[in-house]
């Protein structure tokens, strides 16, 4: 029994070492961030959203880019907490800073760096990812090579800063050294009866690629200051309706 338990311990340590080399590290209890993404977080190794790593987001249209920026803002709000700071680096900024307040982020806690060309953006992203005092870095760009992305991954392995690469209108989907690849699209919101407005933001969230994880597609809404999984929300609403009518 003891020998078998020892083998399991060795296997688990080896598994942890391999995941760490691939950009996944299990945060301590005080460092773990609750993103509220439920089944999405369960799709990652150890069922934990990887912080201190680089994530890739793909957008084909302006509508997709807006949806992706909103979803990333929801993630950033959780990463930054009450006192964190973020750098948002791009050639053509697509985010409207005051809109960040919807996701619990005061715009003055995000430093926007608007540059001229791709090389400047890549250099700035790499240098920002080396800065340990930052909670996160967002980089908006079109093309990036595997070698360039590998340099970014090496930077976060030292600093433990979380990076989001938002690639909009890219020519080719190539392999990068990121731990995951996402595709975010907007879906129609729903309003309560007789209520004006446009409803809460809703997204179809597709995790296209994740190392040692399970890709999948889910639907989420941002309301009450957090992500709400729509399947769970609809089941809750159905239960309430049945109780009221039963």
Strand content: 15-25%
Write the CATH fold name. Rossmann fold
The CATH architecture can be given as: 3-Layer(aba) Sandwich
The number of E-state strands comes to 9
Order of helices and strands: HHEHEEHEHEEEEEH
CATH superfamily: P-loop containing nucleotide triphosphate hydrolases
- Derived structural class: alpha/beta
- Output the number of helix runs: 6
The biggest beta sheet reads:
9 strands, mixed
How many structural units, i.e. domains? Answer: 1
Helix content: 25-40%
Q: Summarize model confidence as the mean pLDDT.
A: 84
Which radius of gyration do the C-alpha atoms yield?
19 Å
**Unreliable spans:** 10-19
Major sheet: order of its strands?
Answer: 3-2-4-5-1-6-7-8-9
End-to-end separation: 54 Å
* Overall 3D shape: globular
Instruction: Indicate the CATH class.
Output: Alpha Beta
In short:
The protein is an alpha/beta fold. It is built from six helices and nine strands. Helix 5 links the parallel strand 4 and strand 5.
């Amino acid at each position: 029994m003891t020998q078998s338990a020892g083998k399991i311990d060795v296997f688990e340590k080896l598994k942890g070492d391999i995941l760490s080399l691939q950009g996944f590290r299990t945060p301590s209890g005080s460092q773990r961030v609750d993103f509220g993404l439920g089944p999405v977080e369960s799709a990652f190794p150890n069922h934990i959203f990887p912080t201190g790593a680089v994530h890739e987001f793909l957008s084909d249209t302006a509508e997709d880019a807006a949806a992706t920026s909103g979803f990333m803002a929801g993630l950033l709000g959780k990463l930054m907490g009450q006192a964190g700071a973020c750098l948002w680096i791009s050639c053509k900024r697509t985010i409207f800073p005051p809109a960040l307040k919807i996701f619990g982020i005061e715009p003055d806690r995000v430093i926007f760096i608007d540059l001229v060309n791709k090389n400047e953006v890549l250099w700035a992203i790499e240098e920002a990812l080396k800065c340990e005092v930052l909670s996160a870095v967002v980089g908006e760009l079109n093309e990036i090579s595997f070698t360039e992305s590998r340099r970014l991954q090496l930077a976060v392995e030292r600093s433990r800063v979380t990076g989001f690469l938002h690639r909009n209108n890219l020519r080719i989907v190539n392999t990068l050294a990121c731990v995951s690849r996402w595709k975010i699209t907007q879906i129609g919101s729903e309003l309560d009866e007789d209520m004006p407005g446009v409803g809460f933001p809703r997204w179809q969230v597709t995790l296209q690629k994740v190392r040692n994880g399970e890709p999948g597609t889910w639907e989420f809404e941002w309301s009450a200051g957090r992500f709400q999984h729509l399947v769970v929300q609809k089941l809750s609403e159905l239960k309430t309706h049945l109780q009221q009518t039963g």
